[in-house]
Write a structure and sequence with these properties.
Strand content: 35-45%
Order of helices and strands: HEEEEEHEHHEEEEEEHEE
Number of domains: 1
Number of strands: 14
Oligomer: single chain
CATH topology: Pnp Oxidase, Chain A
Radius of gyration: 18 Å
Helix content: 10-25%
Number of helices: 5
CATH superfamily: Electron Transport, Fmn-binding Protein, Chain A
């Protein structure tokens, strides 16, 4: 079938994009609510966009009532964020933290998630996640008829659990960190209420 997006509503476009842009990584984003608690929310319109400077981007829509989401409010106020890569076993918790709560009400306590010190960064990280990025706000862009906020953040600190990584030596004798995707078992977003885990990773030899 061929579909002309100009004939479709915004909801129909969203449905088709989330059904076809698969799998998508999930930014499990922690921000400071400035009241002694932390907000935690997942976003699957998320990707890396640059490495010099190291920039990640997540796209944040509005709450059902049209208000700004807490993640956007908090990152504007505090200019910091910790983005986690959730594992497949976290899927129920990721879904739970997607629920809309009153501003300042913490998803962490409801999901019984635990934070720990993030060495070198001012915000904590989730103890349950093997990968976390300590980020500072770089830029926010607004687009669309109902404003969608593109939040660009610069990575300042990276945590990798030693259990999911090794140090390898490449063909030139240089040490490089090797993260084992199967050990991380990252959670991926599909369409509707569907998620996915990775199967066994494989390599393809590049032509010389």
């Amino acid at each position: 079938m061929n579909l002309n997006f100009s004939d479709l509503s915004a909801n129909q476009r969203y449905h088709l994009m989330t059904q076809t842009i698969i799998p998508r990584p999930i930014a499990w984003a922690l921000t400071d609510s400035s009241n002694g608690s932390f907000n935690l929310a997942p976003f699957s319109y998320f990707t890396a966009v640059a490495s010099a400077p190291p920039i990640l981007m997540l796209s944040v829509g509005k709450k059902p009532n049209g208000d700004n989401k807490d993640t956007l409010i908090n990152v504007i106020n505090n200019e910091k964020m910790v983005i986690h890569i959730a594992s497949a076993q976290h899927a129920p918790l990721v879904t739970q933290t997607a629920q809309t709560l009153a501003h300042g009400e913490s998803e962490l306590s409801k999901a019984e998630l635990v934070t720990t010190e993030f060495t070198g960064f001012s915000l904590p990280r989730l103890a349950q996640c093997d990968i976390a990025y300590g980020c500072e706000l770089y830029e926010i862009k607004e687009l669309g008829e109902v404003a969608q906020s593109l939040i660009f953040v610069e990575v300042k600190q990276l945590y990798i659990n030693d259990h999911v990584a090794d140090v390898d030596v490449d063909a030139h004798g240089k040490e490089r960190i090797k993260v084992h995707a199967d050990k991380v078992n990252p959670l991926a977003r599909l369409g509707g209420g569907e998620y996915a885990a990775i199967n066994e990773p494989f390599n393809i030899v590049r032509p010389k």
